[in-house]
């Protein structure tokens, strides 16, 4: 976990030590996201991360609250 990510999310390598690896949970996450929308402030960031880890998944739609604020 990068220092920047740790500051943003509060997760560090130490706090994640006993958590399962991505490969162990990816299929479950993919199943949970089936048909889901991304609703987030600055949603392209979330979309980019999800696309990197689940390249075959596409959201049903994207709602970016940052765009609604402008």
Automatic annotation (TrEMBL):
Entries under Gene3D superfamilies matching the protein: Ribonuclease H-like superfamily/Ribonuclease H
Any one GO MF annotation of this record: exonuclease activity
Keyword annotations from UniProtKB, A to Z: Exonuclease, Hydrolase, Nuclease
Organism superkingdom: Bacteria
Transmembrane segments: none
Protein name, UniProt field: 3'-5' exonuclease
Organism: Streptomyces daliensis
